[in-house]
Amino acid sequence: DCPKMIDYSFLNTYFGEGYSCTWSGPNVLNIAFGANPSLLPGQKMFLDADYMVPWSDHQGHFTNATVIVSGPHSQVSPVAFLSAPGAVSRCASDFTVDAARSLSFGTGGRPLQFSWSVGQTSPNMVVPALVQQLFANATAENRQAVTVPLLPFSSTSGIAGYTFQVSVSVTNFLGVSSVTTRTIALLTSRVSISTEIEGSEEVTPSPGQQTVVLQASPKLLSCGQTNVSMSILWFVKSGASSSSLLSGLSITRNSLVIPVSRLPSTSVTICQKVQVPSLSLSSQAC
């Protein structure tokens, strides 16, 4: 019924490709958005009053109706998530920062907007102009990830030990934003390690589910240095104690299997830590 009530030329633009309209009652029309809708709070929709009200009821006194779209009753906020290495070996050619796992709630299929920034952590260390431009371009193109080459840093005085920060701000269609920042160090060592937990940042067991499986991807990069070994350890950061939740489980592997019956009723944060003890290197993801 939407094409009969609303100007058809606007439907795919307003509601997105693949939208659907269903009546849930004699006076309530539910519209489910499709892909990439553009309708925003404050915009107007023009409805055909002749279709909604029989002529005998309005007796010709009604013209086409205008509806002003209101926003959600409660504020809908995104959650920014940034995957980035804590440290990068000087033998690497590049590294990637990725915000694709940022969470969007109640957006009706609208994409998030990603805004990037990069800055030094010390006044005497300047981020190369080429790298700054790279992040500016990523913002202009609304990219979810940025791959940064290390070559521009080679002209930086004392590349080893250089640290800088990368921030990403994610904004939803209501203009509500969430920001997160990661600090990245360029190491003197020819070895770097990192880990990342796969999937969504938040995991909720479904009814009847017996176990929760967390899968991580620890990585070790070494060039010109041999006999380097990496250790893995899962631990509970908050919401419970490691001894009660992880007791008896295999906590030194890439994956962690937790019985749902052990999980507390409140949220719990679980992390994986990887380290190279001989080089005092470590990295973790939660």
What does this structure look like?
The protein is mostly beta strands and 286 residues long. The protein folds into 3 domains: 67 residues, no CATH class; 114 residues, Immunoglobulins (Immunoglobulin-like, Sandwich), CATH 2.60.40.10; 96 residues, Immunoglobulin-like, CATH 2.60.40. 13% of the residues lie in helices and 34% in strands. The protein contains 6 helices and 17 strands. A 4-stranded mixed β-sheet has the order 5-10-9-7. The protein has a 3-stranded antiparallel β-sheet with strand order 14-16-17, with no helix packed on it. The chain has a two-stranded antiparallel ribbon with strand order 1-2. Strand 9 and strand 10 form a beta hairpin. The longest helix has 12 residues. It is flat and about 80 Å long. The two termini are 47 Å apart. 18% of the residues are buried.
Q: Ends: how far apart?
A: 47 Å
Please outline the major beta sheet. Answer: 4 strands, mixed
Shape: flat
User: SS-based structural class?
Assistant: mainly beta
Q: What is the chain-wise order of helices and strands? A: HHEEEHHEEEEHEEEEEEEHEEE
Q: Portion of residues in helices?
A: 10-25%
How are strands sequenced across the largest beta sheet?
A: 5-10-9-7
Q: Report the CATH topology name of the largest domain.
A: Immunoglobulin-like
Our estimate of the beta-strand percent is: 25-35%
Low-confidence runs of at least 5 consecutive residues: 53-63
CATH structural architecture of the largest domain:
Sandwich
Rg, Å, rounded: 26 Å
- The CATH homologous superfamily of the largest domain is termed Immunoglobulins
CATH level 1 class label of the largest domain: Mainly Beta
The total tally of domains equals 3
Average pLDDT, rounded to a whole number, is 78
